[in-house]
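Hi all, long-time lurker, first post. I run a small reading group and we've been trying to get comfortable going from sequence to structure in the token notation. Rather than ask abstract questions, I figured I'd post a concrete chain and ask someone more experienced to write out its structure so we can walk through it together at our next meeting. Sequence below, copied exactly:
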Amino acid sequence: MKNKKLVIFLGTLVLLIIFALEGVPYLVNVYLNGNAERIVGDLITRTNDFSGHRVKFGHIKLDYDYRGTYLELDSVAIFPDENVADKKVQINLVADRILLSGFIWKSLLLNNTIVLDSAELRGVNIQSLSQDLDSLKQKKQKETQRKKGKDYKSIQVAHIDISDFAIENKDVETDSARLELDGLNLVATNFQLTNKDLAQADALFSVDDIEGSIAHAQVHFNAYRNVIHAQQMKLSKAKNSLSIKQVKLDNKLDKYAYTQDFEKETDWIELVQGSVELVNMNYDAYFRKSLIESEKLLIKDMVINVFRDKRKPDDTRKRPMMINEIIKSIPKDLHVDLIQLDNGYVSYEERPDNDGPKAGKIFFDQINAKIMNITNVPKMLEMHSELNLKATARIMGKGNVDLNVTYFLQDSTGGFTMDGTVRDLELAAINPMLRPATQVAARSGVIDEMTFDIKGNDIDGHGQLIMKYHDLAIDIRGKSYGKGQNILQKIGSFLTNKLVIRSENPDQKGDLHKGTVYFKRNQSKFIFNYWWKLVLSGMRSTLTGEDEDTLRKRGEKGD
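-- Answer (accepted) --
Happy to help. Here is the structure in token form:
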């Protein structure tokens, strides 16, 4: 009898174990699959970003066991509910296939946390409508606490595999594209996003490793007049690298139409091409602190064209920042040991404010430059307080330029030093810039060597310039020089009235005339204009014999 009871007990126990191992998961799966759309849909629409949206599935399958839940979704669609407010963020999401495995229900029910062993997403396309990004940012800053019971405490995924991901964001007011991204492929391990990350402006998420590529991304800005394109982007945390094969800044309007859009003088800028690579990038610093930290930023084959229409009135109210102020104003913390530019090209075209038929143009090619110690992080400024620029280039494909600039980043006056050399410049090469603005052209002449040594700050600059040249001859075409706002026009007017210039330096007696540099900065002009005017003052002094007192008096008069 006892043996019979033992057999019955053991049999019952075995049945209970079998039921626990097989029956419970079976019943759970029956329930889950019977209510799959409601359960999974609620998991999505309970969050802040997807509230007010509906979800549809082409195919859905849930498979539960004690190790976790496997979720398979085909043809997923998320779209705004008909009653969603027009001003609210609206998202349309379509996915070909989503596979989630290792979902832990205990973590969700007890800790409001999503825990997954793996997530595989294929063919996801997101289209969203939202307000202006600045207004969304201001709204987020006002919402110091996100609504409890909606966003998850954290989302943790051990393995993520994303392929053929695309996203487009449009302005809800204008229906104009703001952000577009195509062909994202990404693999990541140990991804974690917490509600603390969402509450902190600087934190994004944490991840052990991440590697991927983006075929094409573009961002529209400046009232949708401009768009930045980035093609063939690759990122790798393991290699500490981020590269973009092709970067472009495109203007949707041509240069004359663009400048006519503004009441005051405004630069039309276009980045035709260029590649970018961050070497030894600190991904953890970026993901956790939004700190852009890298050993080197390498820029290759950059081509930039700039145009300005001087017939527009100058905006004397604007106050362009000095280099130290520009770096401090960067919205994200930044520390890059070295920015290296290889084989760059920059052209500047200017339509003068006279009756001339065309714009003047000057360009620099074969630009190779290194900028060292770029940082706006207060703790790092103690050790990296000097920004150094060393550059070489050609002017108009002829003369060779060497430039060295040092900026003192903690100097409140914007102090800097600048020295350099120009060699073997045929002056006729700059006629395409000189003649349209001044009706003056260099018939002949060569700058054999020009050296300058300048100290300056946000107020003014001074120094010395030595320009050795020979066979200088000036051809004057006329005396109509517009409103006289342009320094080139003023030189042309001076030459017309005085015609007192030396044809060579040193002269026939061997006497070398040294030029004096002085210029009082026009606070409404950008830094490169300031540098150019400093050098030009020394050239003018060499040609005319003006001393520093004369140059200072001119500066006081605004000449």
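A couple of things your group might point at:
The CA atoms of residues 261 and 476 lie 35 Å apart.
Residues 36-221 form one domain.
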